[in-house]
Amino acid sequence: MSDISRDDVALYKAGAFVADAWHLLDDDAPLPDTGHVLLSVARARAEAPEAPRGLHIGAHVTAADDVSDLAPVLDRLEVVAIAFETFSDGRGYSSARLLRERHGYRGELRATGDVLLDQIPLMRRCGFDAFEVAHAPTRRALEAGHDVDVPLYLQPLGNAAERPAGARAWARRPAISGA
From CA 119, how far away is CA 110, in angstroms rounded? Predict the structure, then answer.
């Protein structure tokens, strides 16, 4: 997203575009006493425990980062922003699922970078609840109320509640009685 100005990005959450107080802090920039900052994974892990309480801390995760590194400081992080550097890179989906399901993260999970309208329902399913939208057609569609939903997924999540509606034959077969 380096070629996109911060002014060209809009934060979409809870069905509307909202003001965004968070900004990405460079690793060599001093940590402020107050404000809303996103830190790299390494810096968030190192500095979040000792950061001033007036400072709102979040982490910025790239595709190369291991989100498990954030586990010790997740209770201090208000936002985890996961970068989708290209449309075809799906590692952000896995990072989101790991944060929500394995590590129990309950704060805001934000998708950044190459976020398109058709991806949003899939991102929500993985745990995202906020989206930085730079793609102009996606922004226009959301502004016009065309927030999409996918009513049936072909790959179940693996939990008992969704498995019967899945498309996999083994999940739809009735149990064999007397077996």
Answer: 13
CA 20 to CA 11: how far, in whole Å? 6
Ramachandran area for residue 42 (φ above 0: left; ψ -120 to 50: alpha; else beta): alpha
Residue 153 to residues 20, 92, 100, 147, 149, Cα–Cα distance (Å):
31, 19, 19, 17, 11
How far is C-alpha 127 from the chain's CA centre? 6
Burial of 112 (0-12, 13-18, 19+ CB in 10 A): buried
Q: Copy the structure tokens of residue 42.
A: 């390494």
pLDDT tens-digit profile of 139-159?
Answer: 999 999 998 877 666 666 655
Report how far residue 86's alpha carbon sits from residue 102's, in angstroms, rounded to the nearest whole number.
25
DSSP letter string, 31-49: PPSSEEEEEEHHHHHHHGG
**Interval 18-42: pLDDT, tens:** 999 999 999 999 999 999 999 999 9
pTM of the predicted model over 0.90: no
